[in-house]
Amino acid sequence: MVWLKANENMKSVYNRLIESMKVDVKWKGEFLIVDNRLILPGEINSLIFDFGVRKAYASIIDIPPVPRDIFEIADRKLLINMFNMVLYIFGKWKAISGIKVEQPYMKLDMLLKNILQEIDVKSYFSENGIKFATNNGIQIIFEEVVSTAVERIKKKELDEKTMSESDDIHEGLWHDMKWKLLSAQFLKNDITDDMAESDRIGNNFYMSKYTCPECKENLHMTVYPEKKEFVIETEKGKVFMARVFACPLCNSFYTPATQKLLSEGEAFKLDFEDDKKAAKDYRRLIGKNGGRNANCNYNMYEADYLGKRLGVFGESLPKLCRHLEELTDEEIRLILERIEESFYPKVDVDRFLAVIEQELEYRKNHPRIADELKKLDDEDEEKQAGVFGKSLSEGNKEEQDIKHAASGTVSAVNLSGTGVSEEDDGMADKLRSIMSHIEEKEPDEDTGLEYAEVISEKREKTHLSSSENILQKNTADKNKDKKVTDKKKIKIKAEKAGKISETKGVFNSIKLKKSEGITSKSEGNTHKTKSSTEGIQDFNIENGQENTEKLENIKSDVDTESFVQNEHICPEQDKISSAAVSDTTDSSNESVQKKESVEDYRGKMAAVSKKRYSDILSLKREINFSTLEDKDKNSILADIQNLLEQTGKKELDYIISHIPQSDTRDRYKRIKNRIKTFEDIDTKEYEDIIDSYIDKAEQKEIQAMVSRADKKDRKSLIELMEHINSMGFEMKNSEPYIKDIKDRVIEIDNEKILEICPDINNLTVEEGLKVLEEIAQTDILPEIKSNMLELIDKKLTRMKTEENIQLVEKFDKSLTGRLSDTTRIHFYDARKMQSGDNKDPESIIIRRALSSYAVLIGKYEYPIAVFDSSIRRNGKEGFILTPDHIFYKGFLKSGCIDVKNIESVCTDEKKKGKGIFVEHKTQKRIKLPSVFNNTDEKNLVDVLDKFIEYLGVKPESRSVSYMSQLSHSSVCCYRCGHIFKDGNICPKCGSKN
């Protein structure tokens, strides 16, 4: 059962058909295909197109509910053509009133074959009916044809979607992955836990208080563990990055400059501009090993990082807080900035942040303390330097101090000896109390942990106990069911032998009685039919067949009917009836004449009973045209029909038994036509036998032709395929041989291709076009010629089109607000040009410029912009910018410049006349025609210089020659140009190649 939803055009066509047929069907637009019937479900009546009986009619049938996920025909051409052909087929059969199809059957059959060829289905359409079959010759029904078409469409659309998604991996333009140094102001915004949770960008990044200097949104950060810093390329060299900040809105990344904090305003930046996909991939790459870690290292250049020990570049937070009263306000602020950028572990921050804030609050309320500290700083610079710059030899002492502080035996704040008043001493005591409380050992959580473990252990025991009980119960139930099943099997085996033998005896008895013409009574027939039914049922039970009660009842009814019919046509009963009629008839002449006519035909029937089938058939026709009463005529015809079947089967058995085991298919077909002359009896089983002989003869004949052919000669094989197709063999017999021959031809053609192009994998598009021209001159299958090149062409066209659109957007964006007059600049729209919608004035100017002075432009080289300098504004002069070249034409000169050979674009104010000049690496300066005013020209030169510099760093992976190769020994990243071998994800930018 297949449900389909018609499109609007098909709804209109089929509704007009319903009106022309004048049937009461209210169709809602759904098709239901069941077996060999196409149904248009209606509210009451439904319109049915039945391929089996070649009729279209309205009827009331049970319609199942329409599924929610019904497949829509929409604009899918395959289904549209199939359902349009349904109208032609039934119109040709004259099953649809109002439709007259004048096309011959042969032409309609070829048209249907072409439609179904897409799904590898064969069709045979004629005035006698229609058949569908697979390429292997297996006959299928119309429902299977539609189902195959739907599945093929789904698979094709899924493949196209997958390919499109695969191409989306390469979206965006190429990017320079060097981080650039900048100075900016990174302000702070207070954030709450709710804000941080609601605005998460994933990839181990979490929200920070710092804001983006461009969009003012909060940056997200991630920190790498010590000794696992991420290495980046900057314009100053390689940097080991300890922490990085990302702005998901601007698609940019920031990291502090070496030995700097982000709050100091000096940082490296990597900008992906509008390429959100590239930024997301890079964030996934760099966030893989990051997270809420603590790293006391600054960002460092490679030489500094490798020449020093990690983990000792900064003081620990407990040690700094131990000497907190000796630090200046600036140094305390620096500690807070470090805390903000995750220099210290969270456990230390939770312990000492309150102490730092308390110290700042105290200094705010007691400025004398701050002044005294400043005085001490001026007097003792060595002491102050000792806090932040201790040598490595004091590392052991630092560890002892930290352990001592953690045990609560060392005061974190020591204000003794600072020369403060008694009031200050009181405050100092208060601070000491606070620090002492903070540094005490935290409450032990082992009790809560042990409790959780106990609960978990109890739950496991409970679960295990219940599982064991259930397992034991299930095992007992299975054993019990097994015992019951074994008893049933034993019982069935005990009854099996007797019932099957009884069944065989019943069938043999029935067959014997039918052949001898013995009539049984109704009771005996009923009893034997019942026995036969029981035998069949027992046989089905033995073979594991269930739910066959309905089938057995039908068999019983058929057998009973045959017995009753035999009893009715019994000769003895007819004689008794005739005697009764003779005793009770009237003595009139009309009655005597009727009695003599019936007896006459009975005599004729007895006379031909020993003759041939054709003689009996002639008598049957004579009786059909006689003037006998219907009752008498039907009685005699029933006897004649029985005689026909007996005589016909004897003759058919004789014909089949004398068929030669080895003969030509024409001889077998003549025998089959002879069998078909027995039209009044069922000859299917005999036709099947002769069909098997025909199949063997055809296979033998085809095999002989194939064995005589030269398998090395392509021309001979092609002629053999054409000859086999023209001989009219059955498809199931000829198809395997044709397939083998075609496979051999393909093998020969592939060998020719390898001679022309030994290395297909490294074939470029230019080389491919040459190969195509060479192959076109040889005899070769078309699908082999174009398969690979068509695939390459689609891939390059799609990728280069997307690249062109994004380059145009990038260049247009860079010009925004820079020029006062842009009417001379015409941007190229690749999709618009490819679709043929290029009749507007701007497209005409672009096409005229391309045909005038850019005839050497590559097939997949799409222009970015056309700069028109012609007097009439017709595009015949000016210059064209493409990703690879600049084509130009002035009043006297024209030419082409490779973008990679351009050093810069500039103006020359010393020379007379307007113009844009290109500084070439190998040639002299080249002038491009221009009609812009001085200000616009300078701004345009500035934009062109930067844009051409960007085009010059285009990676090799963007070239046509690279993309046309089917495989690569090493991968060149499509996004950043980085070359790598292992995997398909670029280790530099995160792009999936």
Please give a quick description of this structure.
With 993 residues, the chain is α+β, with helices and mostly antiparallel strands. It has 31 helices and 28 strands. Mean pLDDT is 75; it is low at 165-170, 383-428, 434-476, 480-485 and 487-596.
Structural class of the helix and strand makeup? alpha+beta
Estimate the global geometry from the Cα principal axes: elongated
Query: Can you give the helix content as a percent range?
Result: 40-55%
C-alpha Rg, in Å? 48 Å
Determine the strand fraction and express it as a percent band: 5-15%
Sequence of strands across the biggest β-sheet: 5-4-3-2-1-6
Low-confidence stretches: 165-170, 383-428, 434-476, 480-485, 487-596
Total number of helices: 31
Total strands: the figure is 28
What's the overall average pLDDT, rounded?
Answer: 75
Instruction: State the major sheet.
Output: 6 strands, mixed
End-to-end separation = 43 Å
